[in-house]
Amino acid sequence: MRIEQVSLGERSYPVVVGRGARAEIDALLPREARRVAVVTDAGVPRTLLPELGDRSVTVHVIEPGESAKTLSAIESLCGQFSSAGLTRIDTVVGVGGGLVTDVAGFAASVYHRGIAVAHVATTLLAMVDAAIGGKTGVNLPDGKNLIGAYWQPCAVACDLDALDSLPARETRCGNGEMAKYHFIAREDLSALALDERIARCVRIKADIVAADEREGGSRALLNYGHTFGHALEAESGWVLAHGEAVALGLLFAAHLAHRTGRIGAERVEDHYGVVHGLYDLRPPLPTGLAIDALIASMARDKKALGSLTFVLDSDRGLEVVRGVSETDVHAAWADFTARNA
């Protein structure tokens, strides 16, 4: 087992990475918790649910897919927690991918004004990103994750056993998120074994979260590729999975950084080398997309601060850039679609 720590003072917590990591969760839950609500979805094998000792355990299954990320789903879960008798000292455990950790974490953050939550990440995307850092949220018709809360878990287990049965598309989604860490840390992670690479991504994210828990500065760098990626998801009617959209978002961000004079053409090629080369991520760009609709979606993104805001590359590293012009976005779109359509 590899154990990485997210250092947030009295709210610090461990992230356990390894085969069978789910077995560590019971010992990491609050001692006083006698009832545990396990939140999962129908696609998660029941063999991945953790053993939780002599606690009273109820299992709550949500629907898979973005349609489950709604306020009505949160209301339903909280009603189920109440029916199960959960009190303020009890605990929620999310077992699944990023959708489950987002929904379970948000429900825990509002039930009784906040009860403890832990996560067992069963997808690569959740292991390297979604389960760590305390961001929770659900969607509105206007955009992704527009309602949510920061609510740190008390522990996270990244159980590599789950990857053995992970569908190929879910693996690609995780690779989309993993690819961004090459650019955040400016490291070639490809030489690392998978468990080491996952642990390294966890460490990178843990350090950023510890320095900027609520995204006042450096944490925004974790959104690299996400502004455009989220718009692609929403405007395509969710036909793209999140990690696929992020992979395309990384490439678009490279073209935009080139158009704004921040990087040269060779750095754009570096992005294609990581996304297409190292990770073989080539999701098809959905047809029928209009750049003006994408711009409108990006303007509503929760990271937009009064203007089009992107995380973009430069010779100094990634930076948050506000006030990006629509002219440059249009030009980058032309470059991007010429290469990827």
Query: How far apart are the termini?
Result: 42 Å
Rg, rounded, reads: 19 Å
The global form is: globular
Report the major sheet. Answer: 7 strands, mixed
In short:
The chain is of the alpha/beta class and 341 residues long.
Explain this structure to me?
This protein is of the alpha/beta class and 341 residues long. The chain folds into two domains: 2-166, Rossmann fold; 190-340, Up-down Bundle (Dehydroquinate synthase-like, alpha domain), CATH 1.20.1090. The chain contains eleven helices and eleven strands. It has helices spanning 25-28, 71-83, 98-110, 124-130, 168-185, 194-211, 226-235, 242-259, 265-278, 291-299, 326-340, and strands at 2-6, 13-18, 35-41, 56-62, 91-96, 116-121, 135-140, 143-150, 155-159, 309-312, 319-322. The strands form three sheets. It has a seven-stranded mixed sheet. α5 (168-185) runs parallel beside α8 and α8 (242-259) packs across α11 (326-340). It is globular. The protein starts with a strand and ends with a helix. The mean pLDDT is 95.
